Amino acid sequence: MYNGTSVAVVVTAYDEEAFVGRVIETVPDFVDRIYAVDDASPDGSWEVIQRVATRINATAEPERAITDGGDARRVVPIRHEENRGYGAAVKTGYERAAADEMDVVAVMNGDGQMDPAILDRIVDPVATGEADYAKGNRLLRREDREGMSTFRFAGNAMLTGLSKFASGYWTVGDPQNGYTAISRETIERLDLESITDQYGFLNHILTHLNLEGCRVADVSMSAVYGDEESSIRYVPFVRYVSLLLLRSFLLRLKRRYVLEGFHPAVVFYGAGSSGLAAGALGLLGSLKRSLRGSDGFTGALVAVVAFLIGLVSLGIAISMDAEESDSLEVTRYDRRDGPATVEATDGVDEDIATEDEADEDGAAEDEAAETTDTESPLQPSQSMD
User: At residue 53, what are phi and psi to the nearest 5 degrees?
Assistant: First the structure.
């Protein structure tokens, strides 16, 4: 239990024989149940899961079984008969945890890249009711990105930008981060069948969360990479996810800004896309005419104007879109010497907050002025970064 809330962890595994056992063993004690889902791994992942589960279940006290009247095991091994994809493994764990009435369901992949010591920080926004879904973000702070290669960072940054358009969560980053937590109520609200079973699951679920008006929390965390090898083929993955995000973007605009009530953002998105496309094509046409010796200046000028109108329209659309989802986003920056701070001012008057901070700063200065010289001015400090 975490602050009176039952917590489950879904551990997904595909070809993680060397890591999945350790991941299961290091899940924190406050977790009530672990659903270890093997997605038909061709290696020995399933055997490792069964062996570790048997050992842990033989010694663990099944406290949760008394409450939900269900499975008495702390570790529940689940195996897909055929490989169905990462998203399908997560959804299997979600459905089983929701059926067992777990309040919060976290996900830790079986590759060992998710630090179990910070699981409480991922779970906390959901357990306290601050968010419906929480996820890690390795891009919020420079030191958190130190373990990430330039190739990974560039790819992640590109997918982050595309996911902002698709999901509508404009301050949420690192969409590929699978260290997540979700409430049981949110699982039950989502149409899981309409969310992809493949590796684009993490991007796709954000769009569906936005469609349901769910609050999403971004929690800073450090990138952790070891000797594990990714099973993702990057070129097909990027192509598949890019098309998935385009479809998600169009679905979100249609549902939120047309079917559920007209919003001018959809008009500006249309004008922006048309203007940019017409401007780019016009410039190419003018360049070709110039190379053939014809006058391309007038066409180029019109194309530039169309491009600029499209750019301005797109900026207006993004601003409107971001404002619509602003109340659904929470960002948490890590504090090493205490709980994570919340970067959100929903329902709080920023001017009042600023005045309070100014009063506190003034009081601190007065107190410092009264401090005697017997206290050393050189005191150790802890970095907030």
Answer: -60, -45
